[in-house]
Amino acid sequence: MRYLRLRPLPASGRLALSLVCAVAAVLAAGLAFLAGAVALGSTACGTALISVALAAIQWRTMRTAGADDADEVTIDLRHPLPRLSTNDPVTGLVDKAFFRVTLSQRVASARRHLQPLSLVVFELDGFERARPERRDQALRLLGSAIRRTLRECDTACRYGDAAVACLLEDTPEAGAAAAAERVRKAVTMSPTGRSFTLSAGIACYPSHALDAHDLLRRSVQALAAARAATAMHW
User: Fold this and answer.
1) What is the sign of the dihedral through the CA atoms of 42, 212, 103 and 198?
2) Where are the beta strands (DSSP E) in 58-114?
3) Strand 163-169 and strand 155-158: pairing?
4) Percent of the chain having pLDDT more than 70?
């Protein structure tokens, strides 16, 4: 039996395909609105926006790296892949090294399947002023609250001394805000959690960022703004 190995579409071809999809979606939206099908037209507009975002990503990829470099990836399956993660002993969540790899993979998956992806970064306010034993108690509480609240398909990791980052698959901004509020309530319902406040920064693909680096940067910026607003009320 013979098998044919298909080469991946080059970057220029993916760019052209995204532009064609965007044009087709705009035409479909126009026809739908003319026919009075508002819901169908709105869906077509959303598809057009996603196609334009994908085209922008492909264009930036072609400018920053050679198209040939991104077309093929070689993995030697004769040797086992190195272990990328260990669990944080305090929170029980995976570590920062695993998060960095997973973030890029989840953004790529969201781009491929045309799905939203949200990144929520939590941080315990007043962590530096607490006693060491209270810090560990608060971190264990935060890790437990996140594991109970988020879905199995979501990923949470210890990101800093008092920070935890969560990747929420197929989740827009409103869903991420609702999940963050559930985590906050789960933390503050505990006697240990009442000694701290919890700030969160949210960024979403593709509405806030189009790649993993910008998604992380925007979520950290949102967290800084949330912490500044919390500090003003102290």
Assistant:
1) negative
2) none
3) antiparallel
4) 77
